């Protein structure tokens, strides 16, 4: 497997090397975590629109995003590039983090949840993350460029527009695409397109070292 100048394979190479069996194991992991997180009837209803496949695909998208825009995605550390298994460990961590963030949103929007470590105290959530002005700035610039390309790609598929517009509207505060009022198939198609856009941007901006300022045009 080719290596980058900074050591280890690229995120794209690692994700493409994941076998079907490893993919199934990753989805099984996400499915178990979803079941454990939905430990009250209210949370079961709130988390119902989220599938294991959603969590896995969004974790992959964040890794691709972090390759070129570390402040907006999740950049793989060197220890997560030494093998596909190490990359999978990072993806599992992202899935855990995403579920924790979903529970934080649940606390703000509905039923009260106590503060605590959700991994060891079911039904509790961690305190919200501190503000990150620099990350917010990178994310705004990424939204401007990436969603313009996403709309261009989807021009021949107008049924995707509702999912794109909804995601773009909430992109600065929420990584989720799927919602109860959206069909799962268009939402999945938009996720696939967005990953292609990220790979396209990564190819255009494949310069080292990456500073996170590349999108400030």
Description:
The longest helix is centred in the middle third of the chain and has 26 residues, at 84-109. This protein has helices at residues 11-16, 20-37, 41-47, 52-68, 84-109, 133-153, 161-170, 184-204, and strands spanning 114-115, 124-125. The chain has one domain (11-204). With 217 residues, the chain is mostly helical. The model is unreliable at 207-217 (pLDDT under 50).
Give the spatial strand order of the biggest sheet. 1-2
**SS field, number of helical segments:** 8
- What is the tally of beta strands? 2
Domain count? 1
| Strand and helix order | HHHHHEEHHH
Q: What does the main sheet amount to?
A: 2 strands, parallel
Globally, the shape reads globular
Mean pLDDT: 76
* Termini gap: 33 Å
Structure class: mainly alpha
């Amino acid at each position: 497997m080719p290596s980058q100048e900074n050591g280890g394979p690229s995120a794209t190479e690692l994700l493409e090397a994941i076998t079907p069996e490893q993919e199934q194991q990753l989805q099984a992991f996400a499915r178990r975590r979803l079941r454990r997180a939905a430990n009250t009837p209210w949370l079961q209803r709130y988390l119902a629109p989220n599938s294991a496949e959603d969590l896995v695909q969004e974790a992959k998208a964040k890794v691709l995003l972090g390759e070129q825009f570390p402040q907006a995605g999740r950049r793989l550390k060197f220890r997560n590039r030494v093998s596909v298994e190490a990359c999978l460990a990072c993806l599992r961590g992202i899935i855990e983090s995403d579920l924790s963030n979903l529970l934080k949103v649940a606390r703000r929007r509905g039923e009260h949840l106590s503060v605590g470590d959700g991994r060891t105290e079911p039904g509790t959530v961690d305190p919200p993350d501190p503000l990150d002005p620099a990350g917010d700035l990178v994310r705004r610039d990424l939204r401007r460029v990436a969603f313009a390309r996403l709309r261009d790609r989807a021009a021949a598929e107008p049924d995707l527009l509702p999912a794109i517009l909804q995601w773009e509207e909430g992109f600065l505060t929420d990584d989720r695409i799927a919602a109860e009022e959206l069909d799962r198939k268009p939402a999945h198609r938009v996720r696939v397109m967005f990953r292609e856009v990220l790979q396209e941007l990564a190819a255009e901006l494949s310069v080292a070292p990456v500073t996170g300022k590349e999108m400030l045009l």
